[in-house]
Design brief:
heterodimer; A: alpha/beta; 7-stranded mixed sheet; B: two-stranded parallel ribbon; L-cysteine transaminase activity (chain A); amino-acid biosynthesis (chain A); PyrdxlP-dep_Trfase_small (chain A); transferase (chain A); L-aspartate:2-oxoglutarate aminotransferase activity (chain A)
């Protein structure tokens, strides 16, 4: 049956870098190997951590005979959608009280970005936005580009963000791009704990960004994947999102509960929609339904149930906030210790950025050659960009990692 | 003095009005929305049925729009094997790390085995790629996207009629929809001649969608001899076959029997695309469990196709949800859970078959002189009654029996407690 295949021309695609890194790490036999690649939380024993509150709630679910596996509504579990939006916008959000906030339950943060992108391409500025510029930060999460490109946007550009020399935010560059970009451009903003740099604008800088975006009629699309995980405080991490809402922007906010709930593989996300008024919201959500229907019909129930039950119970909500703080605190500790050790070793360069940056990731400043050295010679796995996942550090491996960085910086230029 | 003051007051009043006017104007501009031009989307026809049903206060009301299985008490049914699998999984205390883009390995392997049969040569030679998807819809969507990107011809041929969501899924992915004759309203059965005739004219290399079993919405399936002829003509026309199998096990009660057409086509040399759903046969609706398979020429081609499927999936949802796939894999791979599942699937299918028989018996008893044989000839969850829109309307208005305008009823909504009432109603509007 060796007939001509319709797929004989299909080329082999390159593997997704971050997953390939994990694969290589898994295959490595070196006893002291360290994985600072993929963005998932690890305990100090370098183990995945199912949040205690999640375990509790899963038990509740499995023992509740009233629960079944029926289809969720197309837009998702109502209790999940509303409580998730409240987490982002705040309980007392005027926008929520004005009935102009809605949401779509999605498959993780990726799914939320996807739904938002598909909606914008169809409806944002006229009904064909394939040519509308979409701006993502330089650098940004590696999947942002693909999400928008796949949704049909043909013009994806980057706005200045990371200043490699000073190892911080290129704010002047960022503002400059906001001032000079085409009107009505769409901007993907990281709500907090910028991935991959860990560098966030200050409140003052956010205010200027907002002012400029309002003046130039730019569209705000927040990506919020680390709320609570960055500083340990849900409210602190939501400051930028809430500020923009208070400035009356119509906007989208893609929320992920992968990290802050540790529900990575249950694909729990929420696309929060802040509209001008209830009527606009109604029409927007009706169109979102059509997009959802042809993509996944309706979202998976398990993860959303876990989050909804947690957020809607005062006791469990407190438990959750504690669990989140546990994770955030461990990351902050690792940051402090890594910086201290590098300074103690006398490693050339300044290492303040390690504690100034926030969230899961740190842009170390290591160049590709130094990264290669780390991986090949020291079996410390990190992204070519120099991005490390702080969660991969533990009290047991931090000395080895610090020494490895020291060697990489001193031996390789 | 008085007049001057009045003038001043008038001027002040005027200024105030002016300021208010400007403020309102500015506020309006400021408050105009990006989304002013967004139209209200059309209401979902099936959802509309359920909503109207909910509002009805008639105690004898029946919801025959729902595409989900109900037990003989009209309640959702969580399979025992599912509950058992969930207990096993909970006890294992597994982590929640991301799955691979293509999903849970134990699931995709057993998913393919279920469809193709454990001993299938395709599995042995590794020339299939099976990825975990967001149930049947997600599977079809990935398939549509894959075709759009890698298959030259744009045309996808659907049977007439087909599941309502097939069209928008393929259209959204950039494909063009055409149709081949399928349902014969004069017999409420399969228009075999019409199908063969239309298929024989389909341009080479076009995609043809086939419902593996329990055709949705008609419940009309080809017989094995008819499938054989369809396979021949499809081969002659060099068409790319895309099977949608959403009801394996649920149609006849026998998983191998329901997969017969899929396996036959592969045997005959068709390198098919296949979408599977575990929504109905495992009752895992809301967990979104499905699979998408491409049967390739060899393992090397399968690897290339796999790499491209991953590229397609990543920008949509990164990787699939664990819970349902874990349940399905546990059931399929644990011998006594698998046996229990087969029993329960058999039970669900049998209940449906029994309701079909009782409905026909009930209609006879009512004195109906029409030929209702199609009700028992058709298979699966749905039945195309043959009722006309006016009759459907009467059935809904006078008897509170809710169904879609095309005369389709979900047999799952029929119970031994209400089948008599349904027969009575159908007879009343058709006599």
């Amino acid at each position: 049956i060796a007939t001509m295949s319709v797929f004989c021309e299909v080329p082999q695609a390159a593997p997704v870098a971050v997953f390939k890194l994990s694969q290589d790490f898994n295959n490595d036999q070196f006893p002291k190997k360290v994985n600072l690649g993929v963005g998932a939380y690890r305990t100090d024993e370098c183990q995945p951590w199912v949040l205690p509150v999640v375990k509790k709630v899963e038990k509740i679910i499995v023992h509740d005979d009233r629960l079944n596996h029926e289809y969720l509504p197309i837009l998702g579990l109502p209790e999940f959608r509303s409580s998730a939006s409240k987490i982002a916008l705040g309980d007392d959000s005027p926008a929520i009280q004005e009935n102009r906030v809605g949401a779509v339950q999605c498959l993780g943060g990726t799914g939320a970005l996807k739904m938002g992108a598909e909606f914008l391409r169809r409806f944002y500025n006229g009904n064909n936005n394939t040519k509308t510029p979409v701006y993502v930060s330089a650098p940004t999460w590696e999947n942002h580009n693909a999400v928008f490109a796949n949704a049909g946007f043909e013009d994806i550009r980057s706005y200045k963000y990371w200043d490699a020399e000073k190892r911080g935010l290129d704010f002047a560059g960022f503002l400059g791009d906001l001032e000079s970009c085409p009107e009505h451009s769409i901007f993907v903003l990281h709500a907090c704990a910028h991935n991959p740099t860990g560098t966030d604008p200050t409140h003052e800088q956010w205010k200027q960004i907002a002012e400029t975006m309002m003046k130039r009629n730019l569209f705000v699309f927040f990506d919020s994947a680390y709320q609570g995980f960055a500083s340990g405080s849900l409210d602190k991490d939501a400051w930028a999102v809430r500020y923009f809402v208070s400035m009356d922007f119509e906007m989208l906010c893609a929320q992920s509960f992968s990290k802050n709930f540790g529900l990575y593989n249950e694909r729990v996300g929420n696309l929060t929609v802040v509209a001008r008024d209830a009527d606009n919201l109604k029409r927007i959500l009706s169109q979102m339904e059509m997009i959802v229907r042809t993509t996944w019909s309706n979202p998976p129930s398990q993860g959303a149930r876990i989050v909804a039950i947690t957020l809607n119970s005062p006791e469990l909500f407190t438990d959750w906030k504690d669990n989140v703080k546990t994770m955030a605190d461990r990351v902050l500790l690792m940051r402090a210790q890594l910086k201290a050790k590098l300074q103690a070793l006398g490693t050339p360069g300044t290492w303040d950025h390690i504690t100034e940056q926030i969230g899961m990731f740190s842009f170390t400043g290591l160049n590709p050659k130094q990264v290669e050295y780390m991986v090949k010679e020291r079996h410390v796995y990190l992204m070519t960009s120099g991005r490390i996942n702080m969660c991969g550090l533990t009290t047991k491996n931090i000395d080895y990692v610090a020494e490895s960085i020291h060697e990489a910086v001193t031996k390789v230029q | 003095d008085f007049i001057n003051r009045s003038q001043d007051e008038l001027l002040t009043l005027f200024s105030v009005f002016h300021v208010i006017h400007i403020t309102i104007h500015l506020t309006w501009c400021f408050c105009s929305s990006w989304w002013g031009g967004v139209q209200m989307g059309p209401p979902d026809p099936i959802l509309g049925v359920s909503e109207a049903y909910k509002r009805d206060t008639n105690p004898k009301k029946m919801n025959l729009g729902v595409g989900a299985y109900r037990d003989d008490q009209g309640k959702p049914f969580v399979l025992s094997c599912v509950r058992k699998a969930e207990a096993v999984i909970t006890a294992k205390q597994m982590d929640k790390e991301y799955l691979a883009i293509g999903g849970l390995g134990e699931f995709t392997k057993s998913c393919a085995q279920l469809a193709l049969g454990n001993d299938n040569e395709v599995l042995k030679s590794g020339r299939n790629i099976t990825v975990q998807t967001i149930s049947g819809t997600g599977s079809l969507r990935i398939g549509a996207n894959f075709l759009s990107r890698f298959h030259g011809p744009r045309d996808v041929y659907l049977p007439k009629p087909s599941w309502g969501n097939h069209t928008p899924i393929f259209r959204d992915a950039g494909m063009q929809l055409k149709a081949y004759r399928y349902y014969d309203p004069s017999t409420c059965g399969f228009d075999f001649k019409g199908a063969l005739d239309d298929i024989s004219k389909i341009p080479e290399q076009s995609v043809i969608m086939l419902h593996a079993c329990a055709h949705n919405p008609t419940g009309v399936d080809p017989r094995p001899e008819q499938w054989k002829e369809i396979s021949d003509i499809v081969k002659k026309r060099n068409l790319l076959v895309f099977f949608d199998m959403a009801y394996q096990g649920f149609a006849s009660g026998d998983i191998d029997r329901d997969a017969w057409a899929v396996r036959y086509f592969i045997e005959q040399g068709h390198n098919i695309l296949l979408s599977q759903s575990f929504a109905k046969n495992m009752g895992l609706y809301g967990e979104r469990v499905g699979g998408f398979t491409v049967v390739c020429n060899d393992a090397e081609e399968a690897k290339r196709v796999e790499s491209q499927l991953k590229i397609l999936i990543r920008p949509i949802y990164s990787n699939p949800p664990m819970n349902g796939a874990r349940i399905a894999a546990t059931i399929l791979n644990t011998p006594d859970l698998r046996s229990l599942w087969l029993e329960e699937v058999h039970g669900m299918a049998n209940r449906i078959i029994k309701m079909r028989e009782e409905l026909v018996a009930g209609l006879k008893k009512e004195g109906s002189t029409h030929n209702w044989q199609h009700v028992t000839d058709q298979i699966g969850m749905f039945c195309f009654t043959g009722l006309k829109p006016e009759q459907v309307e009467r059935l809904t208005k006078e008897f509170s029996v809710y169904m879609t305008k095309d005369g389709r009823i979900s047999m799952a909504g029929v119970t031994s407690g209400n089948v008599g009432y349904l027969a009575n109603g159908i007879h009343a509007v058709t006599k």
